[in-house]
User: What shape does this take?
Amino acid sequence: MAEIMYWEAIQRAHDEEMARDPLVICMGEDIGVAGGTYKATKGLYEKYGEKRVMDTPISEGGFTGLGIGASFLGIRPIIEIMSVNFAWLAMDQMFNTAAKVRYMSGGQLTAPCVFRSAGGAAHQLGAQHSARMEKVFMGIAGLRVVTPSNPKQAYGLLKSAIRSDDPVFINEHELMYNMKGEVPDEEYLHPLEGSEVARAGTDVTLFGYNISVHWCLKAADILQQQHGISAEVVDLYALSPLDRDGIRKSVSKTHRAVIAEEDEAPVGVGSEVIAIINEECFFELDAAPVRVHSALVPQPYNHTLEKAAIPDHNDVVKAVLKLFGRA
Amino acid sequence: MTPDDKKRVLKEMVMHRRFEERCYQAYMERKIGGFLHLYPGQEACCNGVMEAARPGHDYVITGYRDHVHAIKCGTDPKVVMAELYGKETGCSKGRGGSMHIFDTSHHFMGGYALVGGPFPLAAGMAKAIQMKGGDEIAICFLGDAANNQGVFHETLNMAKLWNLPVLFVCENNLYGIGTALDRSTAVLDQYKRVCAYNIEAAQCDGQDIDVVYQHAKVAVDHVRSGKGPYFLELMTYRYRGHSMSDSRGYRSREEEELWKQRDPINILRDRLISAGQLTEDEFRAIEKATDDYIENEVIAFAESSPEPAVADLEKYVLA
Ligand SMILES: Cc1ncc(C[n+]2csc(CCOP(=O)(O)OP(=O)(O)O)c2C)c(N)n1
Ligand SMILES: [Mg+2]
Assistant: This one.
């Protein structure tokens, strides 16, 4: 097992899948000659050429639709949207076409596309470059949504997404591309559904996904060391469909739940997980579940306001202590 | 432009250049965060067009490379710098940052981060001007690569259909981030793409402010006199990378040097000197005074201004 960076894991998945299947192509802004804003397609242009590694114009609506159209005839496009903030321009084709075409054609057509995008707030990028949009994607029937929290997932989820006959949206994070982690040397396909227990515990479940998994892991350390609370961390790498079984199992064991997300609270992963808890295991609860989330504001530029708007591991610790009546 | 006008504009352009270079330094010192897109090399575009228009009266909108456009409309450089520092005294109260300079009091209607977004907004402002019967025009400054957004074509169609008083200025600096125009765009002359909509269009050198001014005068007069939209393409070059994390691997140092030989400030300076309207010493004094002003007033103001209060995090979200 080698330690590699998140972006390297994504690059490796592209490379292996493009070598395996000549119908796999990738497209997006600055992904070819420049190697990608986050280096996720580095070296592929040189290796596979401009017909399979396409630098697109700044035409998100256009090239996303073009990729979907190509997928109708068997091409497997990996479409990089430089930042989720720009995905709004591509959503018409993603949602109205890719997500629905299988159903509305009675199963005749499918759009086996992968849409990859950098989500999340980085540092002071301002209101139009800091959106968290997983909540928008995960409510669309016909679209799978996954979000890797580490290099292994980034690698394995992308490989599975490319091979999936469904359209898959992969929500990455601007701050995670340089994160290091172990990735198997041999080929590895990560399931597109389910969840992972990232740390086992008994007293409370901390649900996270993508970057918030790391807040939860850090919070779990602090809770164990300073407060004697054993927290289980569940990584919801699949946001659509969400893992109802995994959520039920963990809550039935710990009887308490905190959901941490970088998104704003309304209509988000937190509200959805709480709804699932209500439906699956309400009577297992010892306390009302709590959400940790961003403030409902467009992201401020000023760094102090920005920090105030976005939660971190300390907010997770505080939420747990409150749940235990210790705050 | 009279000789006095030209001397004033030269001073302004020196200020715009030095302001941007000082931003670069402040970014390196981590006083400015986020994305920072600088304007050096392109000064004659904004200045030439706005000299032909009415700064502070006409409505201006642009993308993320927006500091100089705001200053040219009349925004105090101090409040622009304070915005870049994220301060409460910034023109957008520290909430916007470099890509979102706003100053409605000078009819600078904002910098926007989504490529192509301002096209229809400019047309919409033109619609409002038309309805209200004012003599302002709307001016939209964007880059070459923005023209590949569908909304460019949608907006041109509507602007012509409804004869809206809007001037589209395309600052063609040959690149969209690291992708050269000929790798992203089928038709290289941007002004030619507009003819499908029967919109008057022209292309000219964007480095020589006299040339820009002459073409902009025609364009502005056309729009202001009720003849409908106009598209002006200015051939220019940005000296620095697209934003701060750009090592410029997609273009050669030779190409950069060639463009620097046609520097907009040097062109105007040399012309004024040959005409006997300026001396080398005077020019050096202008540079010195500009640097002093930026350091002692602009930076000092930004440094000493207060941060926004965390209690005000939700201010401005809803009316
Ligand atoms: C909708 C959208 N897609 C992509 C981007 C990323 N992006 C920012 S600037 C830029 C290039 C724009 O080039 P151009 O229009 O020529 O303007 P320039 O920066 O050269 O002035 C790109 C692709 C964005 N901000 N918005
Ligand atoms: Mg450009």
